[in-house]
Amino acid sequence: MTARTDDELWSAIADPSRRQVLDLLVSNGGVSASWLAGRVPFSRQAVSKHLVVLERAGLISRRKQGREVLYQVDADRLDQAARVMAELAAQWDRRLAAVKRLAETAHAENRKTGDRDDG
Question: 65-74: per-residue pLDDT in tens?
Fold first, then answer.
């Protein structure tokens, strides 16, 4: 992923309302904006704006069925995002483990020094 597509992706999924729309699409497959609007606590116009952002980030796509436009999740893009998030989580876990080891080592050294000062 490029930095720009990363930014669009993280911006798209950062918003709780967009995540709610995305969750509904994951659970229900191809549905219309009107159907979504009937299941969220915001307007049809807001749903449409969220769909544009999610589509721009590549998380969803649209297809026309008769006179209706149906939206569905792009599973590959969602999987790609999940893999990126898992790798970021693993990186942070490694960093935090290193910080913990350093803190424990410093604590142990301080205890040894404190024991020598007492005796």
Answer: 999 999 999 9
**Which value, to the nearest 10 degrees, does the dihedral of the CA atoms of residues 51, 57, 63, 68 take?**
10
Is the CA virtual torsion 14, 18, 21, 26 positive or negative?
Answer: negative
pTM of the model: 0.73
Q: For residues 20 and 34, give the distance between their C-alpha atoms in angstroms, rounded to a whole number.
A: 15
- The phi-psi region of residue 60 (left if phi > 0; otherwise alpha if psi is between -120 and 50; otherwise beta) is beta
Tokens in use for 18?
């967009």
- Here the tokens at position 21 are 């729309």
H/E element, 108? helix 75-118
Q: How far apart are CA 105 and CA 100, in angstroms?
A: 8
